[in-house]
Amino acid sequence: MAADSTHDSDRIIGEAKRSLAVQRQGGTHRPVRSIGRESQRLKTSHLKKKLGRLLLAVAGIWFAASVIGVIWNGIGFSGLMIGFLTTLAAVYLFTRYPKLKVPKRADLNQGDAKQLVGRTELWLEAQRPALPAPAADLVGKIGVQLDALGLQLDGVDQNHPAAREVRSLVGETLPEMVDSYRKIPAHLRSEKRAGATPDEQLTKSLGKISEEIDHVTRQLADGALDDLAVRTRYLDYKYGDPDSPVAESA
Fold first, then answer.
1. Per-residue model confidence (pLDDT) at position 32
2. pLDDT per residue over 91-143, tens digit each?
3. Is 105 within 8 Å of 171 (Cβ atoms)?
4. How far is CA 192 from the centre of its chain?
5. Do 94 and 53 meet the contact criterion of CB atoms below 8 Å apart?
6. What is the CA radius of gyration of the chain?
7. How far apart are CA 143 and CA 12, in angstroms?
8. DSSP secondary structure letter of residue 131
9. DSSP class per residue in 15-55
10. Rounded to whole angstroms, what are the CA distances from 102 to 2, 143, 155?
11. Which of 166, 125, 136 is nearest to 42 (CA)?
């Protein structure tokens, strides 16, 4: 009996480790690699909360088993098996649920700079599998840039016009560009229109956004708040390019 109990304990621990490892990669069915530190931080925080709930559930299960054992002068082999099976069920449920929710586009620009960056990164990660390969690669690059931009925005008055415009660029224009592309039917994304396909237009537009984020981050790092000309530049990207996915879907 002791050997069986030891074997079951090892099996439970192994199952828990495998399940938690899967969760760190985004789940069994759709592993998603983090594109930035802030989205990874949010995932890690969510995982820690789930692990905490799991530990409380397991402790509750065996505390209840101990109480029953005292009352009934032992729970026997059947009671031990029920405890182990209940523990396995708790491991399964609490390592899979609740899942980390992908932020809605309307909520990206809420909160402080760190929350803006983290939410935008999580949102972009969820859109990434539906993007063409070159654009998906740019999303990974933008994730790294967003981390750097978030650090710079942390030291800036959030009500400063330049800070508000940067937040609009990251929290509104960037996701709107991706969302507009996704609204185009898949079979039309590789058809040329005005000399380029929507796939190519999206990649070009994301490249411009990436360049702008890098430029703004450098200026913020230099303290050149009043030199930022973000509004005219990102509005050109948003409305001034007739070949852009956003312009086509408008």
1. 62
2. 998 888 888 888 888 888 887 777 888 899 999 999 999 999 999 999 999 99
3. no
4. 32
5. yes
6. 25
7. 37
8. S
9. HHHHHHHHHHTT-SS-----SSHHHHHHHHHHHHHHHHHHH
10. 45, 16, 27
11. 125
Question: Tokens representing 167?
Answer: 């937040």
Structure tokens given for 121: 């990164």
Q: Which amino acid is at 54?
A: L
Please name the amino acid found at residue 73.
N
Beta bridge partners of 196: 193
- Neighbour-count burial of 12, counting CB atoms closer than 10 A to its CB (0-12 exposed, 13-18 middle, 19+ buried): middle
Q: How many residues does the chain have?
A: 250
Which of 10-14, 54-58, 204-208 is predicted least confidently? Answer: 10-14
Tokens of 39: 């989205």
Single-letter code of the amino acid located at 46: H
| Pair 212, 200: CB distance under 8 Å | no
Instruction: Indicate if the alpha-carbon torsion angle 80, 86, 90, 93 is positive or negative.
Output: positive
Give the C-alpha separation, 107 to 207, whole Å.
24
Give the separation between CA 114 and CA 101, rounded to whole angstroms.
17
